[in-house]
Write a structure and sequence with these properties.
Elements (H helix, E strand, L loop, with lengths): L3 H6 L3 E5 L3 H7 L3 E3 L2 H8 L5 H14 L3 H21 L6 E4 L8 H17 L7 E6 L2 H12 L4 E6 L2 H10 L3 E4 L1 H11 L11 H15 L5 E4 L5 H6 L5 E4 L1 H8 L25 H10 L1 H26 L2
Parallel strand pairs: 1-2, 1-8, 2-3, 3-4, 4-5, 5-6, 6-7, 7-8
Length: about 325
């Protein structure tokens, strides 16, 4: 019998949650995704030193204020890393808009168009790019417009059902509901006891979203993300896509046991009525979900912090 990673690939598109080129060559994922935290880790690898220097030189040549040059440096580095990754994988790369724009619809759209333009100047078509932005109301509305312009989006930092419903209504290409961070919140704030992976609230959240999308005919792709253990991944086998860290890819590749399919569009069932959320309802429902509110805010803060660290790293070179 093939290992669990190969079995998973037969029922789910596997995405590498890393900027590590060698990991991608080894595990051969369909797609890859990056974010400020992963780019910061990648920037510390000797392999990327030349790209950091090239990014800084390119930004200096563009001119502008110090802040503009730093933003241009980070965007150039993200695109150059993305381009290198696309030379290895057959599918798409997700590249994230500066998290400081998470509550700025116009700013998000402007930065997204800039990133797509940079990829196209590098000879990479937009059909191979997903623009990532946080699943705030503003981020979702930016994605709604970008999708109409032919720029596909990956809505990240998604923790609550209200976010998922709004993303589907906006027609976004893909969402990244975070499994492990949901579990983290429940461990820190409740006495929840998990006896099997199906008890995991992060797993339950993704399964609910998956059933809602399939039952109501939404084309938005569900890509579970942020896994804490292989059990969470196995409990979502059959999901459209799963983005997985190299350590968990390694664990799955080394396990020769049987992997059963847990999610199947043909068996989708939901008690959630199809919704077309308006801003007031979205904000109220998100506010009523303490876990989603707190994890969304924390995620944005952490991405901003790592974005600033990346800027400082490039500036110091």
């Amino acid at each position: 019998m093939s290992n669990k990673l190969d079995q998973l690939k037969a029922m789910t598109d596997v995405v590498a949650d890393t900027g590590d080129i060698e990991a991608m060559r080894r595990f051969k994922p369909m797609d890859a995704t990056t974010n400020p935290s992963l780019l910061l880790k990648a920037a510390a690898l000797p392999h990327y030193a030349q790209l950091l220097d090239q990014a800084k030189s390119w930004a200096l040549a563009q001119g502008g204020s110090d802040a503009q040059q730093l933003a241009n440096s980070c965007d150039r580095f993200a695109v150059d890393v993305g381009k290198e990754i696309l030379g290895i994988i057959p599918g798409r790369i997700s590249t994230e808009v500066d998290a400081r724009l998470s509550f700025n619809t116009d700013g998000t759209m402007e930065r997204a168009r800039k990133l797509i333009g940079m990829y196209e100047e590098a000879g990479i078509g937009r059909e191979r790019i997903l623009i990532k932005t946080a699943s705030t109301w503003e981020g979702i509305q930016a994605a709604r417009q970008l999708e109409q312009e032919g720029i596909n989006c990956n809505l990240t930092l998604l923790f609550g059902f209200s976010q998922a419903a709004a993303c589907a209504d906006a027609g976004v290409f893909l969402i990244s509901p975070f499994v492990g961070r949901i579990l983290d919140w429940y461990k820190a704030n409740t006495d929840l006891v998990i006896e099997k992976p199906e008890d995991d609230p992060g797993v339950q959240s993704v399964a609910r979203i998956y059933h809602y999308y399939k039952q109501h005919g939404y084309e938005t792709v569900v890509m579970g993300a942020s896994f804490r253990n292989a059990g969470e991944i196995e409990a979502l086998a059959g999901c459209d896509r799963l983005t997985i860290s190299p350590a968990l890819l390694e664990e799955l590749a080394g396990d020769a046991g049987e992997l059963k399919q847990r999610l199947n569009a043909a068996d989708a069932r939901t008690s959630d009525s199809k919704a077309a959320p308006v801003e007031t309802d979205f904000r109220y429902e998100l506010n009523a979900d303490a876990m989603a509110t707190e994890k969304l805010a924390e995620g944005i803060r952490n991405f901003v912090a790592d974005q600033i660290k990346l800027e400082q790293l490039i500036s110091s070179r």
